[in-house]
Please model this.
Amino acid sequence: MPFAYYDRLSETNKRIYRRSDAVTEIPLPDAERLRPVIPLLREALAREERRAIEAAAQILCRGVAELTGARAPQVQVLAVRPELRFGELHGLYTVDSGRIQVWMRTLRHRRVVAFRTFLRTLLHELTHHLDYALLKLSDSFHTEGFFKRESSLFRQLVPETDDESTRKSRRVSIRAGGGLRHDESKDARPRRRGRTQGGRA
Ligand SMILES: [Zn+2]
Model:
């Protein structure tokens, strides 16, 4: 069952959506090689050290890309989440530059984001990257398959934990600044709010 916005897509984008929906996993051969990065990321977040968080996030995302044979994304960790009309921005993927941006502090209290939320956001943006760089899709839609791929990365990298936490997150795609971007914020559900637009800018 596709999300409700499927009906509003062009035929071309429906084809992209269906291709995205059909892939439910990103297999990571030797995922265990990357698992030592997870505690480094957790500890860096606990210490609130932006550079160390960014370094660990880069190693993780580049490592995943390498294991799949995709080109590496750029990864930036920034300080306080920007404000949006309906919440705050958690993460952003910019297609043209292959850049993942994630924010380490909440807007309201300037607190460091919970580890699992941070990791899920990072892997969510990485899944956008892999849609283009690995699956060779010309757009990256939030489909059931997309969320399953995101979860498959999480499970392989953090095998012992469940993956409840980001189900509540809102996923929106916006077009801004001359390139297609995928941004993540909270407080709504993908099937209601998903404003995913097709094609490159
Ligand atoms: Zn997204």
Observations:
- The chain has one domain: 26-193.
